Amino acid sequence: MINAVIYARFSSDMQREESIDAQVRACKYYAQNFGYNIIHIYADKAKSGRYIRKRDQFQKMILDSAEGLFSAVLVHKLDRFGRSGMDTLENQKILEQNGVELISVKERLDKTPQGKLMLYVIVGMNEFYSANLAQETMKGLKENAYKCLYTGGIPPLGYDVNPDKTFRINETEAEAVRLIFKMYADGCGYTEILRALSAGGFRTKRGHAFGSNSLHDLLTNEKYAGVYVFNKSAPRNAHGKMNRHKYKSEDEIIRIPGGIPEIVSPEVWKEVQKRLKENQHRAARNKAKIDYLLSGKIFCGLCGSSMTGEVKYANGHTYAYYRCGKGQRTKECTQREIPKDLVEQAVVEQINKNIFSPKSIDAICHRIYASFQEDDGKDKLAALKREIEGIDRKIGNVTRAIAEGVTAPELKDTLEDLSSQKKKLQIKLYEMESVPGAKKKTLEEIKAEFSEGADFGKLPFEQQKRIIQKFVNRVIVYPGANGGGYRIRVILSTDESAVDEALSVLDMEGNESSPPLKSRNTVLFLPNGIMLLDFFLPKKRDGPR
Fold first, then answer.
1. What are 181-195's pLDDT values in tens digits?
2. Judging by beta carbons within 10 Å of its beta carbon (0-12, 13-18, 19+), is residue 109 exposed, middle or buried?
3. Sheet containing 530-537: order of strands
4. Cα pseudo-dihedral 287, 290, 293, 299, rounded to 10
């Protein structure tokens, strides 16, 4: 008997998974009648026929055809092999070159000239059907769009879909949307917003933590201003890849003001779009001229905002600084700008001297290894569970009081507050349990990580920046006493999961872990591989103010 394989596929739009079984059954029936021995079945589920590269099993079948394990590929019909005429013929040719015959059990094409002609006709008709189906589908979607109805996919955060396909506001999710827009309009950066969202227990529509990209997409979504938008994104390329930031021409986009309930006011929307545009131009301008070593890592100690690069020009010279984003936008923060070269050189020197110098690395690694043994997280996990149990008991007491007829309005507020607290703690518990033992590292692993930073101060700029991105969580700038110089705190962490713990000891105004105002080169070791490097940086005038 001739060894053969079966390839089956169903797409997610018009068919069900049972379609695979029907295709395989027809192919096996053909194999039994014509003497083929089926040795394997390749099946792509919920995959479009238009994009070959997105079908993993198809790609594996093509690769396996070169191994000489089988001599034929059986498909129910050619449209299961592919919708694109060019892709179908190219892959059929690859199989042929590998000594493998492509057999359509329903279309029965032979190797005669007439059979080849029919192959081209069927392939062309399949491509026509696919293109025509897409066109007719789009026509129906546009009709729904002109009525401002739901057209498929996951609704934006803050919205749900009614049975009649109209949109309604999901008030719980809308709270996160309004928070994001308000904070950004007030001058907050992405980092501040992400921290506020995390503290509030907010998640994306899919239940994930927010990231910078999701914030940008949300802030530019016109639907939140009440504008219904459809057919905005450019189509996928020939390989099925989609660029979410590439759009169609304006005449193709359906845009209906007032077509969807607005979540943010027109004033807030305009202010946010203005800020986005200004920041985009500023970032492009700064990026084109100057490389900032601490970009994304340096923060204001007074208000917590990120500090961004700024350039000034005077007497034919260029002066670069880091400046508090909030102070720059709203004038509400009094933090002074700090010269770029001054702070970057100081941070490099202090990290090199205290962390990455050859004589320091071995001692540092042993200290970090010891810090990992101080707290394995079990105590924190148990305390968190006890806290949740305590809130459960309080919720039970309030619920019983309401059930027994107590109607004090404060009870409802208390219940909502307790539920909110429980939600935040449950999210934190989930995060801790999702990475059990993630913070544990061996001494050898720690030394291997730190070895790449040996003689840090002598490394080229790009290597220094890469190591800073890896080890430095943030650089925090505080004003010195009486306006003299700056107090700098560098938080270094060998594990991203330690970030929250590092941020909990940021206060330099009275906490025990705060650096003394006059001391220098103070390294504080915390559990789980966290280091706080504190030093004083004298003020230096190097340009215009």
1. 999 988 888 888 998
2. middle
3. 298-300, 472-479, 486-493, 530-537, 522-526
4. -70
Helix/strand/coil for 226 = coil
Nearest Cα residue to 328 out of 260, 254, 253, 278? 278
What is the torsional sign of CA 217, 223, 226, 228? positive
pTM of the model: 0.39
> What tokens does 467 get?
């190591």
Q: Are 312 and 290 in contact (CB under 8 A)?
A: no
Q: Exposed e or buried b for every residue in 56-89, given b needs 16+ CB within 10 A? A: ebbeebbebbeeeebbbbbbbebbbbbbbbebbe
Contact 339, 366 (CB under 8 A): no
Q: pLDDT (tens digit, 9 = 90+) per residue, 486-515?
A: 889 888 876 555 555 555 554 444 343 444
> Are 253 and 142 contacting, i.e. CB atoms less than 8 angstroms apart?
no
The Cβ-side half-sphere exposure at 163, using a 13 Å CA radius, reads 0
Our measurement of the distance from residue 130's CA atom to the centroid of its chain's CA atoms, rounded to an integer in Å, reads 33
What is the Cα–Cα distance from 205 to 136, expressed in whole angstroms? 30
| Segments of 62-202 assigned E as strands | 72-75, 101-104, 159-161, 167-169
d(CA 47, CA 35): 30
Q: How far is it, in rounded angstroms, from Cα 97 to Cα 99?
A: 5
* Spacing of C-alpha 138 from chain mean position: 29
**Tens of pLDDT, residues 204-243:** 988 888 887 888 889 999 999 999 988 776 555 544 455 5
